[in-house]
Amino acid sequence: MASSSRILVESELLCYVQNNFWKFQKAAVVQTIVGFYNEDKVLAAKTSLFEFVSSLSEKPDGVPTQIGLRRQNDSRKANAYDDLMKLYDFLDAGGVTLPTCAAENLSRLPPVSPRVKWTCTIWRLVWRRAAAAEVKGGEVVSGGAAAAAACR
């Protein structure tokens, strides 16, 4: 049996993020996670992702930090989630091969509501149209890049 250099991280929250990061609007993923997972799960997922980054032999430049400037009334859960998503987005955009995230118990993954699915379907249709052609001042300029940014 061949060995794999792929890293496996067991985290229901990271598994959910990894499998839904590009399927749904970022706000929908955020809303689902904030409503489904408790603070301990969010902090554990954030710690796992930062530990993965620290284990990389070649770290990308400009890695977001774990602790940013926070107002006193911000919740730890919201701050941890914000740090987690910034890091995940940064690593994904930087082409870093992310670890494979797995859930031991699939019932611990949040369901996707029909409303979110419908919203996603609409956004996907809009994104496809926008990706086909970027229009600036009534003139077709290029395809895709602005559309992908607008849908995130």
| Strand numbers in spatial order across the main sheet | 1-2
Give the overall average pLDDT: 74
Euclidean distance between termini CA atoms: 40 Å
Radius of gyration: 17 Å
What is the approximate shape? Answer: globular
**Percentage of β-strand residues:** 5-15%
Count up the domains. Answer: 2
* Low-confidence residue ranges: 146-152
Percentage of residues in helical conformation: 40-55%
- Which H/E pattern describes the elements? EHHHHEHEEH
- Annotation field: number of helices: 6
Largest sheet: 2 strands, parallel
Number of strands: 4
Strand pairing plus helix content: what structural class? mainly alpha
Task: Give a written overview of the molecule.
The chain is mainly α. The protein folds into 2 domains: 8-111, no CATH class; 113-152, no CATH class. 53% of the residues lie in helices and 9% in strands. It is built from 6 helices and 4 strands; from the N terminus they run βααααβαββα. The chain has helices at residues 12-20, 26-36, 39-55, 76-93, 114-132, 145-150; strands at 8-10, 100-102, 134-136, 139-142. The strands form 2 sheets. A two-stranded parallel sheet has the order 1-2. The longest helix has 19 residues, at 114-132. Mean pLDDT is 74; it is low at 146-152.
